[in-house]
Design goal:
about 300 residues, mainly beta, five-stranded antiparallel β-sheet, five-stranded mixed β-sheet, about 55% strand
Length: about 300
């Protein structure tokens, strides 16, 4: 490319003098072509800058070579832009090319961690935790929501990560068992599993213990209440009867007897001979002790 010259000389002959002439002409630069190529993908967010593309140039006269692409927005999820430029040379004009690719969101993983069981306390139990992880050092805690987490039975804990610019959302659910109180009693003079016979109008001491796991409870607030219900005596026709030998006097208020290590509730029996009663004690967790009586 540049200015070229064409010249010619005629030496003359027998009849002509010699002569010559020359002319200049310009050779322009050829064009070049730059091509950026990006593989089809897919491309998923990793937290690192993605550089999957190549670039090359070519032109007249066997011109060819490779270029280093330049990237824009090639880390986070979204549309990345790739460009490359050839500056040109003595015989070729410069050129530029561009391409793009899409970075998709990465998955996230939410994990809820719960203990196998928890003891009933009367309050909503929240023993679980949750965390989310993902590409690009995603790490953090997630709020846990609960179902059926107050009374004994199976409770569930769920955590949901909504996702972000670079991550899809995720969720997880775990369960744990709420263990209720362990009841012991009623103790003597009441006989469990039998039809206790007692004189109407007497006072029967209902003695029992309540444990929360391995811990014995001593506060009367653990007891929800007592109930004496008239029942059909025929329901106990095949149940052995046993007379209550010991009755007590005094108040009928529930108390914890520290010396004996047990709760005591004195039941003032009605004066209704021949009537059968089922007496129940219910604790705050819904656990129940039953004893059956026939009045004399």
């Amino acid at each position: 490319a540049g200015t070229a010259n064409a010249a010619y000389s005629y030496p003359g002959d027998a009849n002509h003098e010699a002569s010559d002439d020359n002319q200049d002409f310009t050779i322009d630069k050829a064009s070049s072509t730059t091509v950026v190529s990006c593989p089809a993908g897919p491309y998923t967010y990793t937290g690192l800058a993605l550089t999957p593309c190549t670039a090359s140039y070519f032109g007249a006269g066997g011109l060819s070579g490779s270029l280093t692409p330049s990237y824009l927005n090639n880390t986070n999820a979204g549309s990345a832009t790739v460009t490359a430029s050839y500056a040109g040379d003595a015989n070729h004009n410069g050129s530029a090319g561009s391409a793009g690719f899409t970075i998709t969101k990465a998955p996230s993983t939410t994990v809820v961690t719960c203990p196998a069981s928890a003891l009933f306390t009367g309050l909503a139990l929240t023993p679980c935790s949750a965390a989310v992880t993902g590409a690009g050092s995603l790490s953090g805690s997630v709020t846990v929501t609960y179902l059926s987490n107050t009374f004994p039975g199976t409770a569930s804990a769920t955590a949901t990560y909504a996702g972000d610019t670079n991550h899809f959302g995720s969720t997880d659910t775990k369960t744990f068992t709420i263990i209720g109180y362990t009841l012991f009693g009623f103790y003597q003079p009441v006989d469990m599993g039998m039809l206790n016979t007692v004189k109407g109008g007497s006072t029967v001491p209902l003695k029992f213990e309540i444990f929360q796991g391995a811990t014995e409870l001593t506060n009367v607030s653990a007891v929800k209440g007592f109930k004496a219900t008239i029942t059909n005596c025929m329901a106990f026709i095949d149940v052995p009867a046993d007379a209550i030998e010991i009755t007590s006097t005094g108040g009928t208020s529930l108390r914890y007897d520290g010396s004996g290590g047990q709760f005591i509730q004195n039941w003032q029996t009605p004066k209704t001979p021949g009537v059968c009663y089922s007496v129940s004690m219910t604790t705050q967790d819904g656990s129940v002790l039953y004893a059956h009586f026939k009045l004399k």
